[in-house]
Amino acid sequence: MTQVVPDRALVRALLQEQHPDLAGLSLTEVEGGWDNRQWRLGDQLAVRLPVSDRAPGLLQKEQDWLPTLATGLPLPVPVPLRQGAPSELFDRAWAIVRWVEGQPADRAPVTSTGAATVLARFLDALHRPAPVDAPVNPPRGLPLDQAGPVDGWFELIADHPYRHRLRDLWTAAVGAPAWTGPPLWLHGDLHPANVVTRAGCLAGVLDFGDLCAGDPAWDASAAWVLLPRGDAEPFFAAYPHTDDALVTRARGWAVLRALALIQVGQNGRHRLPGGKPTWEPAGYAALERVLDH
Question: What global pTM score does this model have?
Answer without folding.
Answer: 0.95
